Amino acid sequence: MIPASRFPAVLLALSVVPLLGWAGSKKPSFDPNTPEGRLWQKVQSESDLSKRLALLELYPELFPSSPSLEYVWSELQARYHQAGNFNKALAAGANVLISNSSNLEAACLNWRIAADMKDPALTAIWMAQAGNVAERALKTPDPDLSKATLECGASARQANEFEAYKAAVTAKNPADRIKLLEEFLKNHPQTQHAGDIEITLFLTYREQGDSVKALAAAEKVVAHNDTREDAMLMVAEAYFKSGKDPNRVLSLSKKAIDRLNTAEKPDGVSAGDWARFKTAELTQANFMIGSVSFQTEKWDAADQAFRAALPTLTDPRFRAEALSSLGWANYKLKNVSDSIKFYMECTSIPGPLQQTAAKTLNSITAEYRIK
What we know:
This protein is mainly alpha-helical. Among the domains are: 35-159, Alpha Horseshoe (Serine Threonine Protein Phosphatase 5, Tetratricopeptide repeat), CATH 1.25.40; 314-371, no CATH class. It has helices spanning 35-45, 49-62, 69-83, 86-99, 104-116, 120-137, 147-169, 174-187, 194-208, 211-222, 229-242, 246-262, 271-295, 299-309, 316-332, 336-346, 354-367.
């Protein structure tokens, strides 16, 4: 299940991104005795925005290989944005990133510009681009980066991470889902979605029928998550079948029962399906508790658990086992009438326990002289 979207607001931190004096495009020194320097002096002395833009536009044409192009394109990006010429501002910002692929301010400003254009598709593109740039720029951030730019980069990275997570967790094909989730964890080892991914991997392996990997994933889930009774019971059943660690079987089964008795119906699941699921899980948990308790001669616990499981035990093999165990537990508890009742029902179920139940029943009736 995918948690609610935690996308940052589109304009988060962008409304205060500075338009000039960008740390990623430090103002270069121009020699006033060179053609490049003289053009820059004209740019600096021009107060009219449209004329200033016209002069700035000459710079890339006249000096296409200048090391100062990144700064000039940054100026053009900011000035075009200031003038409301969003298309040219975006193009200028893209050129900044061609000059320096780690210029986070330019990427963030283009995200802001796309949002100002009220174009959702373009905004999503530049949000993603800002996130990609932030991945590089924030590994060793420039100390002169503004707080607004740092916040923008963090927001963009978070948005990119969520998009990748959403694409992975919603993949329809189970094999694709697993592959994408594993790639996501490799790329985002510190992700806040790690817990959700553990659950999704468990459910996906189970969907595939890969019991070995599903069990390994369930072990990871129950190690720190008390909300997945299905994972608890998968692990408990594995230990139960192997005969290992009965205390863990009891612990997980009891936790699963507590969870099932208080859990609300999940969204998207019908009341009927939820009721059937709870019944099946509670029956399984109580049966395992009854069996482990019986093996350790804890007759009261065995009696209580098997009685809880019995009404919904439909498989003849397990029903016969529960009845036989209830018969013996109640005999040990001196509840002779109940013991006889359980053994009598067990004798009516064809199978390996039928004759044993009949013999034990005869012994009990003879012992207590019941005809």
